[in-house]
Amino acid sequence: MLKFLNILCAFLFAALLAACGEDEHPIKVSLGNREEITVKAPQPAYTYAYLPQYSHTESFNRHQLLVAYLAEETGLPIRQVFPDTFAQHISMFGQGKIDISFSNPFVYVDLANRFGAKAMARIVEKDGRAEFRGQIIARRDNEAIQSVEDCRGKSWVAVDPSSAGGYLFPLALFDDHGLTLRDFKEVVFSGGRQENVILGVYTGLHDFGTIREGALKVVENKIDINQIRIITTTRPYPGWVYAYSPRLAQSSVDKIRAAMLKLDYAHNPRHRAILDAAYFIGFVPSDDRDFDPIRELTWKVERESE
Hints:
By secondary structure, the protein is an alpha/beta fold. It folds into two domains: 46-130 and 238-305, D-Maltodextrin-Binding Protein, domain 2, CATH 3.40.190.10; 134-235, D-Maltodextrin-Binding Protein, domain 2 (3-Layer(aba) Sandwich), CATH 3.40.190.10. It has nine helices and 13 strands. The protein has helices at 2-19, 56-74, 86-94, 105-115, 164-176, 194-202, 250-262, 269-278, 292-305, and strands spanning 46-50, 78-81, 100-103, 118-124, 131-132, 134-139, 155-158, 186-189, 208-212, 228-233, 237-238, 241-244, 282-285. Strand 7 (155-158), helix 5 and strand 8 (186-189) form a beta-alpha-beta unit. The longest helix has 19 residues, at 56-74.
């Protein structure tokens, strides 16, 4: 048997040598017959952007079902785009790269004043209000901060200069308590991410932070949020708003608004899943006049920042 295997191996080796011998003819490749490969451009679609207060992954997970629903319900092509920062969101809207903006009321007022954005609908928060609030947080074991006044002379981490709940609402609250920006050791921004504010406080990098109400739930599976204490909560202000570019046809706007208002959290299981993913429970109609209190607050904040 061993002798047979040796003979077989020798035969196969000889056949391999013959195949690779000098008689082998090279294969000619003609470069004249070429086929151009083209990359298809994305189909035209209305662009939908969530002001990036969380990571892109979180933004996608929260809104993918809603975007798909709106496209299906209206028959309009809609796709989500992902600005990296608050400033980029504003810039992209001005450049015509965002058609449907979901943002906080301060950013909306900026978009309306500069680029003619128009309010379409406000969201209804989990607590049933079309308003929201900011919060001041510190580590539970930080005994030096028990009240708003105790934040004086401390390190403050906030979300972004344009963040409503994560900066501007608390800034107005500090002003009500006689604290100005000069009264803090430092004010550091987290790059527009609520999670980064919470982690900055949790790890002790900063004495206190400011976030929008409800943001702690985003990190409850990553850290022990029982180690975070809410110092206080601001008064409520008009909630997050869907706005549209003045370039959109009114017929398209009407379809999108109608689809939003049609969502029924209480009685439609599919709608409930869409809204649960987005962390709100419905919509109410909205127009620009709803945000006059924000304009007044903007004036107050700008005076404070001078």
